[in-house]
């Protein structure tokens, strides 16, 4: 991989005066890309005019740190006891309101036992930095699909073996079947070695795609590809390397983007998202055996409509909803627990009410915890500087295991008990030693 990060990073500028039609649909920023002929260009561009502008490189931003830079629009996945964070964008230092993509060859690993961050440098043929991509981990392999880069959307898919001695991105080529359209801000479910993608915002599909695509009127600009929302379902079978679309039944959700998806058993849930001028609070699931859609009622007093939120499975029957962005452009910090078997919502009390987030990530840990990383803490569409975050918020959503409680006691009284630690089974001793040596934990 080319290690010159300056060629991998695009900048985005603050949005123009907003109308109601500005949204997550087109990310509400001018994308500033490397163009040596236009370094002196001062004219402001519309959201869709992404080809010219100032050169802003990552070189001036490079310095060694032991925690990830702040970011929004990134991905995060879990494999074993580690969370992996890639991509997104952050504030640019000394460049006004411009923001920079994070380097494509940089992967951050967070050990949930030790609370330690480690920066990993990757190789391979991942061609650009992006935001709004969809990331999922299956059997130790990170799959990265779609996203937005400096010149638009893609529909390419890359994989990274997280358990390999050397981390190397590989593009999945020669896939059979009709691929999804180029898009970002979509969702994904996983079932039986299949990746099932839903919705998103991007270019009109080429070819016959099942489902609805609806143009965004604000993207209809002369001599520029128009974009819109869709409710397409596309399946990638990892065993046969084949794209397909199911024939669905039932009441199909409207097209949307910046929604959140969760897999619970054979059900693929989707909550909220942006469609036209509305941020939704509807809840659907699709039976991934019969491909029938079901709309679930959301009670009065339940979670409000939102986009850019997270919806994280925390047990075989519960999903945790956190944060997001409302139609009224409020950044949220509320938490909710959804019980799938009862179709029941309950507010979740937590200590992070002063830490609103949108376009963050959330991953479920092995001890009933949810790790929320990054995102924006203020109104991303306002003219003030975006408050991108690199804080890690930890939510204890499920009761801790007896083993976890015993470990906490052993650590609290380590001076008295450490002499007896060697009698423990090796895996418990290793876990205790890692937790005892933890440093730079950002959680709370």
From TrEMBL:
Keywords: Kelch repeat, Repeat
Transmembrane segments: none
Gene3D superfamilies assigned to the protein according to its UniProt record, in alphabetical order: Kelch-type beta propeller
Compositional bias (Acidic residues): 14-52
UniProt-annotated stretches for the region Disordered: 1-60
InterPro entries per UniProt: Kelch-typ_b-propeller (IPR015915)
Organism for this UniProt entry: Merluccius polli
Domain of life of the source: Eukaryota
SUPFAM superfamilies linked: Kelch motif (SSF117281)
Annotated protein name in UniProt: Kelch domain-containing protein 2
Keyword tRNA-binding: no
